[in-house]
UniProtKB/TrEMBL annotation:
Residue segments, region Disordered: 380-438
InterPro entries listed in its UniProt record: Tcp11 (IPR008862)
Native source organism of the sequence: Cryomyces antarcticus
The protein, known as: Protein SOSEKI 1
Compositionally biased intervals (Polar residues): 416-432
Positions with biased composition (Low complexity): 380-398
Family: Belongs to the TCP11 family.
Length: 438
């Protein structure tokens, strides 16, 4: 009937838009009423002016309102079902990934080879192999492999497919770790410049920490160290002159040489970077192992509450957020934060993929192909322990605290694989959903 009215030119668009407005206001959150009123205003203005452009804009706003309502409902459900979604994360992901493995849409041979390579090179215990070793030894292989891959000198993240949902978080961690290494390189160069200016004078830890803060302010949130070599060199020279007690404000003679040295060392392929990367890995490995052991036995909800900090309240209107929120933080606080975030990823990864890809008899690279069936059977046994079908992946449970990672694409043959982690985040604290009128 509506199409017939359009064809005959007798459709009352103004009345239709008013009816739609009443219907939308009955079901959407009150904070969306302004959008609905603006849509009605656009349609009425288009009718009065005989403007098809305004009417089309009104229809576009109508579809935008419907999309916003869908996101509001999804975020509302995520907020109030948060505990259930987090608790079912491991069971859902295991069932989802095992289904893809069974259909040969995911090949985990590279993941097993990746784990076996690090297992062979890891000298953390006295066992000939890890077939009968305690679970903690297997997890130490995982943490060692994570650190070595994050601190590698390669241009990208060389993680296997089992880390597909964690690549965004791992990329952020890699960037933070590289920042810490670059800071240490700059502090080492600062000490060399000071000793060149005045023999016997050394920079205090507080002075080095102040330099780290200023360096992070220079590189900004984009953290492009290579683009700011000249500014970094100037800041190192200025700090060295101040620490050595010189009355000069700047020294042009050593700046070109310093810029050349920074250009050579502030990159992952440099020998100085590799030296500091090894030192950082040796410093982080014990604390990461201890944190992994302490959190490995926790349930999903307890793990989330322990490792995911509560989101801070939004800043007041007009408040300017600093360019670098860690510029004044201590290095140990940064390393503790890195350990916490890496522990969360490692524990979840081990709970999900340990029974499927890693923790099975004969996990060496030369036995990986023969034991594929045993590994898959172990994973299937674990996945059957979860009752019901959960429609949430790891991305939803971590979206509440960190930058969301890409969710697995929905499987066209499996309706239960639908993920909501790609939805926009909206402020659901002010959403009050009206009851559908009887």
């Amino acid at each position: 009937m509506l199409m017939q009215q359009f064809e005959k030119g007798v459709c009352d668009l103004a009345g239709l838009s008013q009816w739609l407005a009443q219907l939308l206001k009955a079901h959407c959150a009150p904070m969306r009423d302004r959008m609905v009123d603006h849509m009605v205003k656009q349609v009425k203005k288009g009718i009065e002016d005989s403007s098809q452009i305004r009417i089309v804009k009104g229809l576009q706003e109508l579809f935008a309102i419907l999309e916003t309502m869908k996101l509001d409902v999804a975020n509302h459900q995520i907020r109030y079902l948060r505990g259930v979604l987090i608790e079912e994360t491991v069971h859902f992901e295991q069932k989802y990934h095992l289904r893809k493995i069974a259909r040969r849409r995911t090949d985990i041979d590279d993941s097993r080879s990746w784990f076996a390579r690090h297992e062979s090179s890891c000298t953390i215990n006295e066992y000939v192999g890890l077939d009968n070793a305690p679970a903690s030894d297997h997890t130490r292989v995982l943490t060692s492999a994570l650190l070595q891959t994050l601190l590698s000198s390669g241009s990208g993240l060389n993680f296997p497919v089992t880390f597909a949902l964690d690549l965004d978080r791992l990329s952020t961690l890699r960037s933070d770790l590289h920042d810490i290494i670059y800071e240490e390189i700059c502090c080492e160069i600062l000490s060399l410049v000071i000793s060149h200016m005045q023999h016997g004078v050394e920079a205090l830890s507080s002075e080095k920490q102040a330099l780290r803060g200023r360096l992070l302010d220079i590189v900004g949130s984009a953290k492009t160290w290579a683009r700011h070599i000249a500014n970094i060199a100037a800041e190192i020279v200025r700090s060295a002159l101040q620490i050595s007690g010189s009355s000069a404000e700047f020294e042009n003679s050593i700046t070109p040489c310093l810029e050349s040295r920074l250009q050579r060392h502030l990159r992952p392929s440099s020998q100085l970077f590799k030296k500091h990367a090894r030192q950082l890995a040796q410093h982080l490995q014990p604390s990461l192992n201890d944190s992994m052991t302490a959190h490995l036995g926790l349930a999903s909800t307890a793990l989330h509450d322990s490792l995911v900090p509560t989101a801070p309240p939004p800043p007041p209107r007009g408040y300017r957020v600093p360019v670098c929120n860690m510029s004044t933080g201590e290095t140990e606080a940064k390393l503790s934060d890195v350990t916490r975030r890496l522990t969360h990823i490692a524990v979840l990864h081990w709970h999900i993929w340990g029974p499927i890809a890693y923790a099975y008899k004969g996990s060496k690279a030369d036995d990986a192909a023969d034991d594929r069936g045993a590994g898959d059977a172990a994973g299937l046994a674990v996945s059957e322990a979860g009752s019901g079908t959960s429609s949430v992946s790891r991305g939803v449970s971590t979206e509440l605290s960190h930058t969301p990672s890409p969710s697995p694409p929905p499987d066209p043959e499996d309706c239960s694989a639908t993920s909501t982690s790609g939805l926009k985040s909206t402020d659901t604290s002010s959403l009050v959903f009206r009851q559908k009128p009887g």
